[in-house]
Amino acid sequence: MREKKLYREYRLKSYLNMNHYIIINGKQGQTHPHTWEFVITIVVSGDDFVEFRTFENLIENYLEKYQNQILNTIEPFDAINPTIENVTDHFNDELQALLRDSGGELVSLEGSEAPTRSYIVSHRNEEEFIEHIGRIQSQQISGIVNYVVDQIVAGKEESW
Asked: Nearest 5°: phi and psi at 103?
């Protein structure tokens, strides 16, 4: 029988009004707007309650510098084409570090510049992600075991 691995995911959506142009074969295209959608899936480290607002604020603060801007004028997009792939990859790297510092683990980031097209970066099959989730689960199990042992030692086994 296969062991179930259970963890809780949170999914947040953010929208940015950003303009960009793409350079193809050395030729600059026309600057045009998009309402970009980013869907961020997060696993919470530990078993403590985390308010959605904690992660929403972190993500909103990070994305704010891009709101109503021409991407091509902001690093690193002043040096690389701001395609949906490049933008999502960059946001993925940045948000992954920020979320980890706040007790979350980025599972995936989906970027869309149009309702019919999305680009998704997923960490579900990465060895580092799997090991990190395993450590979280072990810590949770250890916490439960320690609690039960403490209750028994204290003579309060009937309370659980």
From this structure: 90, 15
